[in-house]
Amino acid sequence: MSTPFAKLPGWVEYALIPLVNLAVAFLVAGIVVVFVGENPLEAARIMITGAFGSGEGIGFTLYYATYFILTGLSVAVAFHAGLFNIGAEGQAYVGGIGVAAACLTFDSTMPWYLVFVLASLGSMLFGALWALIPAWLQAYRGSHIVITTIMFNYIASNLMLYMLLNVFKPLGQMAAQSRTFEAGGQLPKLDWLLSIFGLDIGGAPFNFSFLVALVAAFVVWVLIWRTRLGYEMRTMGFQPHAARFAGMKSKRIVVIAMLISGALAGLMALNPIMGDQYRIQQDFVTGAGFVGIAVALMGRSHPVGIVLAAILFGMLYQGGAELSFDMPEITRDMIVVIQGLVILFAGALEHMFRPAITAFFARAGKSRSEAAAGV
Amino acid sequence: MDTNTIVVLLQSTIRVSVPLILTALAGLYAERSGVVDIGLEGKMLAAAFAGAATAAVTGSAITGIGAAMLVSVAFSLVHGYASISQRGDQIVSGTAINFIAAGATVILGQAWFAQGGRTPALSADARLSTYKLPGADAVRDVPVLGPIYSDLLSGHYLLTYFAFAMVPITWWVLYRTRFGLRLRAVGENPGAVDTAGISVVRMRYLAVICGGMLCGLAGAYLSMALANGFVKNMSAGRGFIALAALVFANWKPKNILITCLLFGFLDALSIYSQNADLPIMGSIPDQAIQALPYVLTVILLAGFIGKASPPKASGVPYVKER
Question: Is B136's Cβ below 8 Å from some Cβ in A?
Fold first, then answer.
């Protein structure tokens, strides 16, 4: 077989092609805005100033980014092992049990940093548990993980509604949510972090879990590129046969990769439950698990790329909220469209522009060497 | 439970299983050709919007159905281009379609009709009409058989009869025509089909177009028959239930009918039990019944009841040897 794609310089591979894909996604989104009858450039301006124009805007942007860093890492870890975890949404939802259980039990007896340790361990435990069954079924019974994780998302939403109504809901209350936590169940705001730069956080729920997310990103980097397990996972994802011939226990790696993926998704539950709402309520994940897919694809499954992509999506969420005030025609559903377009162009169609770019660089390289030879 | 309750339950079973049957058959065509389609949900939703919007503007149900199918096929072609021509990841492409449809329907609906993402309520002409089987009124008073004929079998939408007819038709197409043989072969062993001089790419595109048309009908049924216009996210996971039904049915048309009726019955039962007290149902939490189709599918996938055997080449892009 001929090699379809010539080797490209690193900056083309890791910067130019993703940026071209992203640009096309936003171009198509711009066309949708034109269809709606608004000016896409004006919309982009409102979004960017809404997201970065004030301390409060930045606080919200980073608050949303916290969700997407963790779910993006979750999806990326599975990607590295060649698994598509479409169930981060459900794993994060179930992970909420761990956070809520720790907070509801200890919020009035322990300081926040102890409750935080229990809550994060609990969230990771429950998230991992929810990923365990699909992982085990994939590894040992050969059922496709994409289908099972989709099913588990729906099972999770029913299970959690049941839990909220029958376990967490205090008597005599209508809404499917728990009581509000005392001080021990509340993570501190990161207002001091922004005030270093002279910014005022205002009412933004930017909280301690952002730092947790950054630590998680670093840990994932170490795991994937600096440990034996990470090496085995990448081999599995790249060439499962090679992994098996090299004596790696592929079934075990599938299960471990999914447990880590589920744990990272579960950890996301800290951000809304302990960092913002101080109670567990219905649908607190609000699609962040699915945004994780877009973030992982855009960030090319690398923690640095994921953090950047997560901040971009945080900007879309915060800027999108501002936008819907100024342009009522463009609701926050626009973000869902952009998310879909990013998944399409950065994921499914990622090779669409590669032949053209490769040809361009091949021609440029040739003319340069001809010029050198001609002297 | 008297006959009347049973007839009411079964009637609503038929009503809610129509979109499941159409969508699961749509998935069947695509997946039997080797293209995994998790974008069924999105296509159904987009079609529901296109159908209701067009029918509301033109006042004609037929144009609405046409628009629904057109939009759904367009989405299918995007999926086809990504997964057949560009050999991209089919799961990723399907996920993208679900999001684009979920967002775009609301944005465009709000921009065009300014009713919070809804389309205007449809007039009688713009909705799908029901069809009374011959002699339905005459035999109503006959005990047992009367209500079954005139209430259960008669008085459904034409699309309902079409959906049920599509099951044997699909079986016939798949197992008794040259097209069907090639379609199944392309999903099992595309290399062999290619060697026989048949274009794998062409077969797969035809299959996703068939799927797109059926999904379009399912969407039109949602917004023009079940409901009276489009509402945000009205497909509400039915595309994924249909996907589950497809897997549960082991990619076979006859089983699809049975599975969709079973899942439809569960849905009907949970709707019914919210309004009326049923003997055993009262003690089972509503959420458990809602989750049952998904749980059953997982159990099937795990190989505890029968063995799921998907088409061998499904999800694998075909690369011609050079």
Answer: no
Strand segments, DSSP code E, in B39-154 are 130-131
- How far apart, in whole angstroms, are the C-alpha atoms of residue A297 and residue A305? 9
- Distance in Å, alpha carbon of B97 to nearest chain A alpha carbon: 7
**How do residues A77-132 score in pLDDT, each as one tens digit?**
999 999 999 999 999 999 999 999 999 999 999 999 999 999 999 999 999 999 99
The four Cα atoms B233, B235, B240, B246 give a dihedral, to 10 degrees, of -160
Q: For residues B225 and B231, give the distance between their C-alpha atoms in angstroms, rounded to a whole number.
A: 13
Span between the terminal Cα atoms of chain B, in Å: 66
pLDDT one-digit tens code per residue, A130-160: 999 999 998 988 778 888 999 899 999 999 9
* Tokens representing residue A267 in the block: 């950890």
Q: Do A150 and B38 make contact, defined as CB atoms within 8 angstroms?
A: yes
Check if the beta carbon of residue A135 is closer than 8 Å to that of residue A255: yes
Q: Is the dihedral of CA A192, A193, A197, A199 positive or negative?
A: negative
Return the domain boundaries, chain B: 21-235
Run of H or E residues at A305: helix A303-326
DSSP E strands, chain B: 130-131, 156-157
Task: Give the closest of A154, A158, A348 to B89, CB-based.
Answer: A348
- Domains, chain A, ranges and CATH? 10-170+177-356 (1.10.3470)
> Min CA distance, B233 vs chain A (Å)?
11
Find the closest chain B residue to A2 by CA distance. Answer: B322
A282 in Cβ contact with A174 (< 8 Å): no
Has residue A2 got a pLDDT over 50?
Answer: no
* CB < 8 Å to B101, chain A: 340
Closest Cα in chain B, distance from residue A84 (Å):
8
Taking an 8 Å cut-off on Cβ atoms, the answer to whether B285 and A155 are in contact is no
DSSP for B151-167, written as a single string? IIISSEEHHHHHHHHHH
